[in-house]
Write a structure and sequence with these properties.
Layout (H helix, E strand, L loop, with lengths): L1 H10 L7 E5 L5 E6 L3 E5 L9 E9 L5 E10 L2 E5 L5 E4 L4 E4 L8 E8 L5 E12 L2 E10 L5 E9 L4 E6 L2 E2 L5 E3 L6 E4 L7 E6 L4 E6 L2 H49 L1
Parallel strand pairs: 1-3, 2-10
Antiparallel strand pairs: 3-8, 4-5, 4-9, 5-6, 7-8, 9-10, 11-12, 12-16, 13-14, 13-17, 15-16, 17-18
Length: about 260
């Protein structure tokens, strides 16, 4: 009955958000799930031939007391109990356990215990499930500096343990193009004359999102405009100074001519 309910929930699309997969067949596997999303855990290859097994979560209380809560009990290929059947589905034929609508409390250490036909433990495995909030959006802020360099800041909303990376025209930025920072920080400064499609990517274990900046060329244009403006101003004042000198010389020449006339009289 619980398996049927779980299947119906999947068909109706109860699961939503980011879906991740983790191979938990190796002892001590590290798995990640997105908050509000779905995780598919590969617990074993084929559970149909196993006599009995249980799957539990170990939690620590506020008083540092370790408690174990059994989630799944399967005996002779029959699901006897699934305490989260309203948002999960276990498939014995391929050994996958799917959990939907993940919450923070789903994170923790899980243990799979397999029993043989005599009721003795034949195998024990654990996996660690970490829940992370996915990155929801990325904001890119750029600032043109006086010499044509560009300072760029990349920030993200949501997302636990974000990691940053930068590309220019689809390739990783080089040290020759960076004035400060590196491709794994969220703040960089690009040297002048660097142009192209700059992309900042933010990721964690459950999500990845990117945004690009088209203002690189604008910084170069601004720098060129500033240089041309300075050249223009310099040329203008040089012309004004030259013109002033020419006018002054002409006036002095006229004054000297007048004096000469007066002496002849």
């Amino acid at each position: 009955m619980e398996a049927v309910i779980g299947l119906l929930l999947m068909i109706l699309g109860v699961s939503h958000g980011v879906e991740t997969y983790c191979d938990g067949r190796q002892n001590g596997a590290q798995c990640y799930g997105a908050l509000g999303g779905t995780v598919v855990l590969q617990l074993m290859d084929n559970a149909s031939e196993i006599s009995r097994y249980t799957w539990s979560i170990k939690t620590t209380t506020k008083t540092d007391t370790r408690t174990t809560t059994t989630i799944l009990i399967v005996i002779k290929n029959v699901i006897v109990s699934n305490t989260i059947a309203n948002r999960s589905f276990f498939t014995p034929s391929n050994g996958t356990f799917r959990i939907n609508n993940l919450s923070w409390t789903d994170g923790g250490e899980y243990e799979l215990v397999i029993f043989d036909s005599d009721g003795k433990i034949s195998e024990q495995r654990t996996l660690q499930l970490t829940i992370q909030a996915p990155v929801s959006s990325v904001l890119l802020v750029s600032e043109c500096l006086s010499q044509g360099e560009m300072r760029v800041s990349c920030s993200s909303e949501g997302g636990d343990s974000p990691q940053y990376s930068w590309t220019l025209d689809g390739r990783t930025l080089t040290d020759a193009e960076l004035l400060s920072g590196n491709t794994e920080t969220n703040n960089i400064t690009l040297k002048q004359k660097v142009s192209g499609r700059l992309v900042c990517s933010v990721r964690n274990q459950v999500s990845r999102i990117s945004t690009c900046d088209h203002s690189l060329l604008i910084c170069g244009v601004r720098a060129a405009v500033v240089v041309l403006a300075l050249i223009g101003i310099t040329v203008y004042f040089a012309w004004k100074k030259r013109k002033y000198k020419m006018v002054r010389r002409k006036m002095e020449h006229q004054e000297n001519s007048v004096v000469m006339v007066e002496m002849r009289s």
